[in-house]
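Why run this: before we spend reagent on co-expression, it is cheaper to look at a predicted model of the complex and decide which construct boundaries make sense. The entries below are exactly what would go into the expression plan.
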Amino acid sequence: MTRPKALVLTGYGLNCDMETAYAFEQAGAEAQRVHINALIDGSVSLDPFQIMAFIGGFSWGDDHGAGVVQAVRMKTKIGDRLLRFIEQGNLVIGICNGFQCLVNLGLLPGLDGDYTRRSVALTYNDCGNFRDDWVFLAKEKQSPCVFTKGIDRIELPIRHGEGKFFTDPHTFSQLQAQRQIVLRYALPDGGAAKGAFPFNPNGSLDDVAGICDPTGRVFGLMPHPEAYNHWTNHPDWTRLKEEIQRGKSAPPEDVTPGVRMFKNAVDYLVG
Amino acid sequence: MPSRIEITLKPEMLDAEGLALSRKARDYFGIEVDSVRTVHLLTIDADLTEAQCERVRSDVFTNPVTQISSLRPLAVEADWIIWVGFRPGVRDNAGATAVEAMEDLLGITFGPREAAYTSKRYCLKGPRLCRPEVEKIASELLANDIIQQWMIFDAKDWDPAQGVGFIIPKVKLDHTPTVSVLSIDSDETLQRLSVERNLALNPNDIPIIRNYFLNPAVKAQRKAVGLDEPTDVELEYISQARSDHCNHNTFRGLFNYADLSSGERDTINSLFKTCIEAPTLALKEKKSWVVSVLWDNAGVGRFDDDTYYTITGETHNSPSNMEAYGGAITGIVGIYRDPMGTGLGSRLIMGSYGFCVGHRDYDGDLKPHLHPRRLLDGVIEGVRDGGNKSGIPTPCGQVLFDDGYMGKCLVYVTALGIMPARVKGAPSEQKTILPGDLVVMCGGRVGKDGIHGVTASSETFSEHTPAGHVQIGDPYTQKKMQDFLLEARDEGLIRFITDNGGGGLSSSIGESARFSNGCRIELEKVPLKYDGLDQWEIWVSESQERMTVAIAPENEARFFQLSTQHAVESTVIGRYTDTGKLHITYNGTPCAYVDLDLLTAGFPQWVFDAEWRSPEERGLFEPVIGEPQDHKQLLLDMLARPNICSKAWISRQYDHEVQGTSVIKPLVGVGRDVNSDAAVLRPVLGSRRGLAFSQALLPFYSRIDAYHMTACTIDEAVRRLIAVGGDPEHIGGVDNFCWPTIQYDPVKNPDGRFKAAQLVRSCRALRDMCLAYEIPLLSGKDSMYVDGHLAGRYGETHKVSALESLQFSASSVIADIERCVALDPKLAGDRVYVIGWTGDELGGSEYYDLFEAVGCNVPQVDPAAFLKSYRALHRAIQEQLVASVHGVYRGGLGVHLALTAMAGGIGLEVDLAAVPVRTPLRSDRLLYSESAGRFIVTVASERREAFESLFQGLPVACVGQVTASPVLNIRRGGEPVLELTLPALKKAWQSTFGDLI
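The model came back. Tokens follow.
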């Protein structure tokens, strides 16, 4: 198979398009940055793409709830096309603002085959502020998520003011039962954060940082894997460098843990 | 018929905004509020049916998981209710996006007079709360009456059916736009009219202006287009262009400098020409990486063969002082437009900030418009939203406290961009305009924003008066515009681009028209926010988020197609010509017909007297302080001082990872909580090249001598770059001056001559340092008049002047980011070195300030000597011989050894006796002297020899080692000086603002 094609949404205040496209390229996909309106007016078709990335940023300034207005626009104008894209077995990733958009579209969590219902929310951080920090994440081992295959623990940056995951007890138990809670904020040793700030940076229910749909092909997360696209993005890299030079640590792998998520998507498609 | 939606979080959800408000009420004022729930109101002033309102309520404005909402007032329990909404004409970003969402969902288009307005009501519970307390919360925490209106209801006068009612802050100006003609029958008349109309014409300029308009040839030409005496549009244009803000009259002025101590006299014809332009042009010849300087909106340096970087900085002091959030967000979003308007346009890659305010806990008699604490909260949030929502990382900044900034705060903003070296084969840094090109305005619409700046604040408010003089930046609109313009650039559609900042169209078109030598503008085409603006107001309005672009007529269709796809408003408002004239009409009515070269025609230079006296003659002396006995507590107290302590709570609010380019972050070390020396980015993701950026701001030394303040500031910025791996052969600079008024007045400014001398000395140091360190000044700005008149206890006022301040930014290109270093020691057993001499240089230091002393012995910079060490250190970094590098800055060795240890999470053992000195110094002086040119470096034992061999003949010494036990242990020979655990150090350093998030 040729390189899978990844569509990276842009426009209306989205802003992680360059690095998300770069991460896809590193992972072996062919990435194209496409304005939301180009999809809507049909000048770009979804058909040639196998991956769609809802990226980070501040669509519509985050006014009226992060990701809300983007979801309204996309659902109203191209909602059916998005549903068809998922039905066809393609992959969708939503990062930060993109995750917020996916839950407002109802593409996540996609319970009971319903990809239109809003049943979970990402709301204001308990700390009351926007926060930029690197977090430790632990993966649900039995998650069907395509993007996190082979990942056990990972460190990624978070940068958001509205990342607190919340839902009702019934939905939550369904998510748990179907292993849809993919990533949880954790302590440095991998143990559960149990809500402790700053390890759980936003007060998310059960430390939830990312979820997928029951098929594992639609994935949303608050942390930014695309911002870990080079080993020097990691906060400890100068320390690691010194340890490598003195033979106390192994050199980093060519593919960063962040890019690994995108590569998993490519590998899934290439088979 | 207006409608209203009320939205609030479900009762079981935590209301973080409400919690933050109760916390501030308690912390700031000691007012106990049991709980606060926030209700968001959206008032829709449009003809929507009930069903349509219901649909947008449920499908857009309510999150079914977390929120409840209603078209009627929500029943939220409260003892008191505070409603806060915008005044008419204030930018309501969320109101505008609400309209977009409703249009999308309902498939309708709002009419020009229809709109949506957001506001909030806060439901306070607290049975003992009284009205004065609630008023204090409303006026001092929630609302700023310059931009907002508010109402208070207690439980018994709250009508649950009516709620707050329908408040529509719509601008209504019952006014027919009129061009006025101003009489110039005498200088006195024009002077009087200038004062009456807030034209702010300089009295010395008035005869020149009159001569021009009275010139028979000019009169004849004007008659032919239907004009006689000057119009308000023309005089506003001249006034804007001649303002100090646009024309830099101070820096281009004539300074008569006298050193009354030495007898030296000097006449300086333009500080700009002699101290900024001349050295920069000389260095441009030497440094092939300098691409474009001194003319465009930002300077341009070479990043690699295919890519250039752009850099500039400015301040937004006065607006921030009045409305902290609005001023700061407008400042950061505004500076981003400068790189956007540089060359054919660059993409923004980072921003930075510098905040100078009064002490956060100030409780003296003076009453600033905003308390420093509130002001700081506001400017932090303004830069946060402006940077984060623009998708631009903010990895660097300074926060300084000094009560001199209570008169006026300083808000520095800096922006860097990147652009391809060539666009469609043509050099990207060059641009011009051909006659016949279209004048296009892109982005936001024009209202009464920013007209005549703060002079408007003295006008009386009425219910529908636009409060436009204080603005709120709109990063969302600007981000859309930037995305659009970059695509247009890459398609080769842009001939010329510049931003609309100070002076609005008057500046952007007035300046760009010089490239084709003329323009013809049809003002009625300019899209307005609301009707009723006079022509001169359209011309000088400073409404934000606008760029002026010149495009060739054949590119019009494609340019507008892209603009539409990006949902950006663009309008052709005229054509560039080669007539030599600025020609403006409004629906055919002549508004202006002026020769473009009028502004270069012999306006008189400003003249300043500058008188210097040495610190000793001014009565400064070295304080007599004996050797302290308790070094432990001294260090802890130094670390806790507001200008030293941790301000991580600010850094963490700023997205410094977006774009995925972060290499050296603002907070580094094992705990990721100690400020790095400088920021490093990898702006071209596929490349290993890096861009290093540092800043320094050391106004305290101005108490002694602004020459040394400037020299130390520049040296610190240079050292910060070197510390992370910056290249001493490539250092670009940006000078950003903030100075109190220097024009002498025996009553209003009796020390003006001294402040003028400080400026002369500062500029001399700038010149000396830039030449010595070979720093071309890629860009720079000056902001004068940093003074305020504050009311005191008895209603008297006091003039408060800021310290003479210079923020210096430095940039460097790094060949391989994998060679970069951070400040944290890595492994026990490594050796600790100090590079550079420590001298008896505590004048103006943090240590003296602890005892409220100033002293005289200000640190001196010896760039030629320092550079040898900097080059050696750079080589050591390139050869990967060092494990960590940290400069020694404010607070001296004591503070910076502590920071180094904290960053490493590992111990240090240091012997002060080994620190390089020319003459023996007491321990407190060794620890707290702020001598320039120094670093703390750690080196693996096995690399000692290689490291030391690079420093032959230079002041460097091994002073100790890194230890496994987490203790900072400082001794002097055999004598212990202090021993402190890392947790104790951290507690002191983090406790001052420790509970802020």
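DSSP finds 27 helices and 41 strands in chain B. Residues 3-157 of chain B form a domain with the Mth169; Chain: A , fold (CATH 3.30.1280.10). Bring this page to Monday's planning discussion.
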